[in-house]
Amino acid sequence: FDGATFGGMVTFTRATVSELCFNSVLVRERATFDAVHFVEVASFRDASCNGPVTFDDARFDSTADFTNTVFRSDVSFTEVRFQVSETQSITDTVFVGTTFLETADFSRSTIGSIEFTDNDLPAEMSFRNTLITGRFNSDLRTTSPVYIDFSDAKIKRGKITYQSGEPLWLDFTEASLGDVRIRPTEQANRHELLDQTRFCDTEFNEF
Predict the structure, then answer these.
(1) Cα atoms in the 13 Å half-sphere on the side-chain side of 161
(2) What pairing do the DSSP bridges indicate for beta strands 131-141 and 154-162?
(3) Mean pLDDT per 10-residue run, the chain (207 residues)?
(4) DSSP string computed for 119-144
(5) Which of 119, 155, 157, 122 minimizes the C-alpha distance to 139?
(6) Cα–Cα distance for residue pair 182/175, rounded to 1 Å
C-alpha cells in the first residue's frame, strides 16, 4: 500500500497479515486495525492519518515501525501485544519522530523494547497497566503541557529524558519499576521535573 491515498475509512479487523507496508499512506478518515495479527514487519513510516486510529487487541510478532507517522486524531493501542525480543539490544517497536495531535492510549498492552523519541506529544498519553519487559527508551520534548499516565504499569528498565519545554507530568501511581532512569537534559530544570513526577504507592521491584 506504499504511497496510497484512502479517501474514506480503512478497516482491517481480525485478519492475519504476513507483512504490511503502509509507508507514506494518507488516510483521510477513520482507520481500524483491531485484532489484526501482524506476523512479519509492519511498517507505517511517514503515514498520515486524519481520523481516529485503533489497533486495539492487535498483535505484532515482529518489528512495528511508526517512524514519522502523523496521527491527527485519537490513536488507541489498548491491549496490544508488541513483540518481546529475547535480545535486549533489539528494539521491536519504534516511535521516532511520530506526531500525536490528540490523545494516545497504550493501556493494558504488553511491549518488549520500545524507542519513543523526538515526538510531538499529545496533551494526554496513557501507559496505564502496561507491561514493558524490555527497555523503554524515550527522549521527550514538549511544546504544550503533557500528562503521561504510567499508573499500575510495570517497567523492567528504561530511560526517560526530558528536554526543556512546557511542563511534563509523569504519573507512576502504583507502578512497579526496575532500572528506570528519569532525567532532564542540562537545559531543563531538574527541580521542576521532580515536582511534576508523581510516586504514590510505587514499588521498585522489577529488577
Answers:
(1) 12
(2) parallel
(3) 88 87 92 92 94 94 92 95 60 86 94 86 92 87 88 91 81 92 72 80 77
(4) EE--SEEE-TT-EEEEEEEEEEE-SS
(5) 119
(6) 14
Report d(CA 95, CA 64) in Å as an integer: 9
Q: Which helix (H) or strand (E) holds 94?
A: strand 93-96
Count of other CB atoms within 10 angstroms of residue 7 = 8
Distance CA(100)–CA(97), nearest Å, equals: 10
Nearest Cα to 51, choosing from 106, 10, 96, 13? 10
At position 20, the amino acid (one-letter code) is L
Pick the closest to residue 153 from 89, 93, 198, 102 (CA basis): 198
DSSP character at residue 191: H
- Residue 98's Cβ-side half-sphere holds a number of Cα atoms within 13 Å equal to 27
pTM higher than the cut 0.85: yes
